[in-house]
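Project outcomes to date are best conveyed with an example. Our students and postdoctoral researchers have been running inverse folding experiments weekly, and each run begins with a structure described purely in tokens. The record below, which covers 361 residues, was selected by the lab manager from last quarter's runs and is presented without edits.
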């Protein structure tokens, strides 16, 4: 029984079923709202399965995703190394959650934040970065890594030309996986009382799976199995690297790229197994989690969940699976949860003229 179970700690629930004041948490600053996310047991989706499956809710980080941890860790490491100081500028090429994490930590600590994002980035995400005060520059979509307009190159040139600027480089920054060695891994070990047997996570930079996997393998004497949930086509799991739908995970390789650059943040030697998940299965899993479990999760969480459910079917009561939920479905209400988008993306058969509802293809 996990130690953070409320009743095990002697907390009583109110008549309405709420935890009651005894379980309140106080953070002394916004940055303390990063980390210490809960594990939630999946009791509906896993009802007919034998292992226990716990979802680690990374959308409970204060900026809404797992990347808050990496952002804080990278900024703190840069300060320690003398690369970032008062009046400094945080720079990164990213459209996603890392930009949000860096922007919120920069805002809190008084740094300027400059984000280079692909032109196709959803308007809502750009607004979100700007809401935290970040400056956003839009750059060409999906160009080869060697092209001067690739967002990593644009961000690097800007950082070089700007006094006091520091480039986060999440793909190669050891403080990215380091965040998870220091926090995500220990939290899972503590909260499962060391009973975790499998970690399932999707892989973007590889920071989450590398840091968390490294800690859990060390803590368990090597017995925890690390399972990478990888989108179809992703080059991580041996796919062709063709561009994909599910945002935030997998490894796409531009066909004109002379060389394939793998992130240093991803230590592939830690991965025991890749489970390949199609975009459709990822989206279906995310939608099922919302409708059947009451848990609104994003597309890469859907990828990881689909892999965890497939894995669980092979295991028994002696196993405990922890699946990482990188962000919330709230970020994808106009995509994976929107029937119009799904239809135009080819995932949903349109509703028939007689009013018969559309169905997922
Ligand atoms: N899911 C989402 C939605 C993300 O934004 C990311 C980060 N790119 C990941 C999963 C993967 O996390 P990591 O970079 O730590 O591998």
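After processing, the design step wrote out the following sequence:
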């Amino acid at each position: 029984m996990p130690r953070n179970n409320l009743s095990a700690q002697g907390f009583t629930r109110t008549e309405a079923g709420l935890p009651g004041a005894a379980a309140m948490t106080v953070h002394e600053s916004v940055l303390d709202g990063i980390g210490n996310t809960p594990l939630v047991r999946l009791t509906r989706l896993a009802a007919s399965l034998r292992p226990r499956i716990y979802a680690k809710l990374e959308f409970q980080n204060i900026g809404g995703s797992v990347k808050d941890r990496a952002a804080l860790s990278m900024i703190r490491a840069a300060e320690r190394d003398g690369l970032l100081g008062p009046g400094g500028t945080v720079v990164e090429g990213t459209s996603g959650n890392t930009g949000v994490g860096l922007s919120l930590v920069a805002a809190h600590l008084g740094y300027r934040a400059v984000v280079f994002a692909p032109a196709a980035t959803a308007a809502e995400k750009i607004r979100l970065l700007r809401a935290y005060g970040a400056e956003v520059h839009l750059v060409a979509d999906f160009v080869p890594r060697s092209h001067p307009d690739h967002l990593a190159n644009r961000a690097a040139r800007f950082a070089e030309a700007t006094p006091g600027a520091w480039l986060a480089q999440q793909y190669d920054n050891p403080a990215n996986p380091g965040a998870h060695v220091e926090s995500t891994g220990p939290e899972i070990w503590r909260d499962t009382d060391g009973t975790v047997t499998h970690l399932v996570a999707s892989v973007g930079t590889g920071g989450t799976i590398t840091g968390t996997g490294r800690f859990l393998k060390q803590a368990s004497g090597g017995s925890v199995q690390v399972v990478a949930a990888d989108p179809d086509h992703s080059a991580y799991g041996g796919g062709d690297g063709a561009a994909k739908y599910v945002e935030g995970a997998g490894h796409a390789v531009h066909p004109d790229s002379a060389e394939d650059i793998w992130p240093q943040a991803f230590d592939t030697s830690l991965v025991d197994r890749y489970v390949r998940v199609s975009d459709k299965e990822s989206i279906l899993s995310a939608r099922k989690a919302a409708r059947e479990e009451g848990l609104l999760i994003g597309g890469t969480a859907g990828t990881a969940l689909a892999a965890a459910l497939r894995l669980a079917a092979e295991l028994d009561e002696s196993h405990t699976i922890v699946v990482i939920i990188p962000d919330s479905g709230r970020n994808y209400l106009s995509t994976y949860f929107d029937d119009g988008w799904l239809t135009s993306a080819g995932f949903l058969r349109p509703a028939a003229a007689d009013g018969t509802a559309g169905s997922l293809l």
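Residues 175-191 form the longest helix (17 residues). The pocket of 4'-deoxy-4'-aminopyridoxal-5'-phosphate is lined by residues 65-67, 96-97, 202-208, 248-249, 298, 300, 326-327 (CB under 6 Å). The training component of this project remains on track.
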